[in-house]
Specification:
Layout (H helix, E strand, L loop, with lengths): L1 H5 L3 H22 L26 H5 L7 E5 L7 H5 L4 E5 L3 H14 L4 E4 L12 E7 L8 H10 L1 E10 L8 H8 L9 H10 L4 E7 L5 E2 L1 H11 L7 H14 E2 L2 E3 L6 E7 L2 H5 L1
Parallel strand pairs: 1-2, 1-4, 2-3, 4-5
Antiparallel strand pairs: 5-10, 6-10, 7-9, 8-9
Helix pairs in contact: 2-8, 7-10, 9-10
């Protein structure tokens, strides 16, 4: 029985991943105060433009780049990785379903004069996708992918050399779990993260390597900024009783001279590179 826990079958690992995604989705649907309107990422899209915050994962990612490469960036966001990557490879295909994110990305492409970035509006995987690339990568874009096996299968099918995923040690909102649980009165249901992804790849019998870098340190911020972040991660309506309770708890628990220092959101990042299965069999 211990062996089953440490060495799950691929079916068991895939099912466990889906169960975590389902638990998060069910919890969000239950506790969410505001109704989702429009593009979920519109309010925060500028945070994902190149240079908006450190891209600590970039150096180990670039270690896989070759000058003549074509790379596929799945969930490219505002171009935080696509833009610097385009300086090291021949072509980047940036897939991004959020209109707000694509707008930020296109602005960054124009400002940086990077004509070798091709932006496409689609969800991955897509039946319309026909391009093969040297490297496909998904940076922080798979935490909530329920059907993870078809997602990874498509990456492998269209990658000639390498597939890469970047994940953090803990997923969205986990650093604010104490506030979540106090406000909503139930345990926080985390999405899968780096640990679960490595277990999944192992269960799929893939040959992989993992490079890690330290996460962004917790920074001093204002109480208003901290409360705004918590409101989004706890799915709260502005000025609701739960929103006011969360703000009060943040002030009580994490106030320091000069402002608020929230717990570190991500302790470290993992850059996981693996060989597509057709290469392993070759």
């Amino acid at each position: 029985m211990a062996g089953e826990a440490l060495r799950p079958s691929e079916a068991a690992a895939v099912a466990a991943w889906a169960a975590m995604v389902d638990a998060d989705a069910e919890q969000v649907a239950r506790v969410r105060e505001p109704e989702p309107v429009g593009d979920f990422y519109a309010p925060i899209a500028p945070r994902f433009r190149p240079g908006a915050r450190p891209s600590l994962e970039l150096p180990p990612l670039l270690a896989h780049a070759k000058p003549g490469d074509t790379w596929l960036d799945i969930g490219a966001g505002g171009g935080r990785f696509a833009l610097p990557l385009s300086e090291h490879v021949a072509r980047v295909i940036a897939v991004e379903p959020s209109e707000a994110m694509r707008n930020v990305l296109r602005d960054a492409i124009r400002a940086g004069a990077r004509p070798n970035i091709d932006v496409r509006d689609l969800y991955w995987p897509s039946l319309a996708w026909a391009d093969d690339v040297d490297v496909s990568f998904a940076a922080h874009s798979i935490y909530d992918i329920r059907e993870i096996a078809p997602f990874l299968d498509a990456m492998e099918r269209h990658s000639r050399r390498t597939c890469i995923a970047i994940l953090a040690d803990q997923p969205r909102g986990a650093h604010l779990a104490p506030v979540f649980e106090a406000v909503h009165g139930e345990p926080f249901a985390p999405l899968p993260g780096l640990r679960e992804f490595v277990a999944l790849l192992s269960a799929r019998n893939r040959r992989f390597e993992v490079a890690t870098v330290s996460g962004e340190p917790a920074e001093l911020t204002s109480l208003d900024e901290a409360a705004t972040l918590a409101r989004r991660l706890l799915w709260l309506a502005p000025d609701s009783p739960k929103d006011q309770q969360a703000r009060a708890l943040i002030e009580q628990w994490w106030s320091v001279p000069g402002g608020v220092r929230l717990p570190q959101a991500r302790g470290f990042f993992g850059i996981v590179a693996w060989e597509p299965v057709q290469q392993q069999r070759g």
